[in-house]
Each structure stands twice: as structure tokens, then as C-alpha cells.
Amino acid sequence: MSAAPPAVPLTTLRPGRAGTVAAVRSTEPGRVVRLSSLGVVPGAVVTLVQMRPAVVLRIGETSLAVDRDVADDIFVEACP
């Protein structure tokens, strides 16, 4: 039985790579609520589209632009 890959911040992925959200960890409760209302929840598959000038991620057919500190709070397990 192999262990699950470690969860890493979304910003460690290369643009074009996808990951499954493992957790959203923030000291700001409102941030977690806002991201979950946008579909950034454990189990969701997100694709990192770009890192600059803003971090852009795609969930399904939805693209979101977020600040780097917000993206750093989204932990993913990289998809193969």
C-alpha cells in the first residue's frame, strides 16, 4: 500500500499542472469560506494556469485570479 503524495501549496505547481485540493489552510476564516463558495474545496481538481501577474487557477470551466498569499493557503496533491 503506497502513501498518498504529500500536499503542497498550489503555488509549487508549474503552470499547466493540475492537483487535487487536499486542504485550505488559512488563519483568516473568511478566506476559507470565500474559497469554498468558489468551489475550492477538498477533492476538487484545480489547474494552475499562470503565476504572474496574478495567480490564476481553473476549476472545471471557472477561472479564478487570486493573490499569491491566497494561493499559498490552497494545498494540493499533484495529479500524475
Describe it for me?
- The structure is a single chain.
- 16% of the residues lie in helices and 38% in strands.
- With 80 residues, the chain is of the alpha+beta class.
- The chain has a six-stranded antiparallel beta sheet with strand order 1-6-2-3-4-5.
- A hairpin with a 4-residue loop joins strand 3 (45-50) and strand 4.
- 20% of the residues are buried.
Structure described in brief:
By secondary structure, the protein is an alpha+beta fold.
Give the CATH class.
Mainly Beta
CATH topology: SH3 type barrels
Q: Could you list the spans in which at least 5 consecutive residues all have pLDDT below 50?
A: none
Rounded to an integer in angstroms, the radius of gyration calculated over CA atoms is 12 Å
Give the ordered list of helices and strands: EEHEEEHE
What is the secondary structure topology, with strand pairs?
Elements (H helix, E strand, L loop, with lengths): L7 E2 L8 E7 L4 H9 L7 E6 L4 E5 L2 E5 L1 H4 L2 E5 L2
Antiparallel strand pairs: 1-6, 2-3, 2-6, 3-4, 4-5
Task: Provide tags for this entry.
38% strand, 80 residues, 2 helices, 16% helix, alpha+beta, SH3 type barrels, 6-stranded antiparallel sheet
